[in-house]
Write a structure and sequence with these properties.
Helix content: 25-40%
Structural class: mainly alpha
Low-confidence stretches: 1-7
CATH topology: Arc Repressor Mutant, subunit A
Strand content: under 5%
CATH architecture: Orthogonal Bundle
Order of helices and strands: HEHHEHHH
Number of helices: 6
Distance between the termini: 48 Å
Strand order of the largest sheet: 1-2
Number of domains: 1
Oligomer: single chain
DNA sequence: GTGATGACGATAT
DNA sequence: TATATCGCCATCA
């Protein structure tokens, strides 16, 4: 097999593409991005990709990518400020309210169009019923 | 090629 | 919920 998706070895580009799909006011975890990218991608790969953003940090919403615990290790980069500016609510402990801002993933149509995978549903992780207006 | 590192995840306690 | 331990994979020295 050649021209395999993995053969492209452009994990970073894919991760950037998926991260760019995260809507404003929402956040996604490294694991989610890795799942969407698939092809053996892992949460750490996403972390490395975001760490290698460099000049692309201005075009990729890296601030919307946080750890699964909702905490941010990038303290000092103003990530929290960026998220708050987008309307993301934080907990008293500095954790993002995942239940209210967790990204559901890209549309299946978009995912297929780009060769990605839709994000599987998380049992028990339904959006906050109180915030579930409309 | 090997070892160490890392913007992590999942599970167990 | 927080902490501890293991795993997982790409990149760097």
């Amino acid at each position: 097999m050649s021209t395999s998706a993995r053969d492209e070895r452009d994990y970073f580009e894919r991760i950037y593409t998926v991260a760019d799909q995260v809507p404003r006011g929402q956040v996604a975890t490294y694991g989610d991005l890795a799942t969407i990218v698939g092809e053996g991608c892992d949460a750490r790969i996403v972390g490395h990709a975001l760490g290698a953003l460099g000049a692309r940090a201005k075009t990729v919403p890296w601030q919307r990518i946080i750890s699964r615990t909702g905490g941010i290790s990038t303290s000092g980069h103003g990530q929290r400020e960026l998220l708050e500016a987008e309307g993301v609510a934080f907990d008293e402990k500095g954790h993002v309210r995942m239940a209210a801002h967790h990204w559901e993933g890209p549309s299946e149509e978009w995912a297929r169009a780009h060769g990605f995978q839709p994000l599987p549903r998380r049992p028990g992780s339904a959006p906050d019923p109180q915030l579930r207006l409309f």
